[in-house]
Amino acid sequence: DWSVTGVQTCALPICFFTLSVHFAESVKKPVLIVQGANDFQVVPSEAHAVEAALKAAGAPVTYVEVPKMNHVLREVKISDGRDYEEAGPVAPAAIEAIAKFVQQTVQQPR
Predict the structure, then answer these.
(1) Quick one: which of 17, 20, 22, 39 is 20 to 30 A from 6 by CA?
(2) Of the candidates 94, 101, 97, which has an alpha carbon nearest to the alpha carbon of residue 31?
(3) Angle at 13 between CA 9 and CA 64, to 5 degrees
(4) Structure pTM?
(5) Burial 22-38 (b: 16+ CB within 10 A, else e)
(6) 3-state secondary structure 21-87
(7) What percentage of the chain carries pLDDT values higher than 70?
């Protein structure tokens, strides 16, 4: 159950949501953090803090940092927000990480 007060809910084992380290103990389902190395809104150190809180709480968490990826899952040289308006594909490494996570998660017995 992804119903956690103050956090966007999701019925699947994967979703994109903002997770405060204060809610880590409430998370029981597998979590995938796909972090962009060029994300200036949620910097890698913040994502690592969420990962550490989840691990400390015993939640199954997978962390993948994608080189050159920004906050909107695109590969860029530098991100400052102006790149959000530009059209472009999702970073292939992000797609691969999500697909791998879903395959592994769906195959696990409940």
Answers:
(1) 39
(2) 101
(3) 110
(4) 0.75
(5) ebbebbeebbbbbbbeb
(6) HHHHHHCCCCEEEEEECCCCCCCHHHHHHHHHHHHHCCCCEEEEEECCECCCCCECCCCCCHHHHCC
(7) 75
Which residues, including other chains, have CB under 8 Å from residue 3's CB and lie 6 or more apart?
A: 9
Separation CA 95–CA 64 (nearest Å) = 11
Mean pLDDT of 28-48: 88
* Cβ contacts of 78 within 8 Å, gap of 6 or more: 38
Rounded to whole angstroms, how far apart are CA atoms 59 and 16? 16
| The two structure tokens encoding residue 105 | 């998660």
Task: For residue 82, count other CB atoms closer than 10 A to its CB.
Answer: 9
In contact, 8 and 17? CB cutoff 8 Å: yes
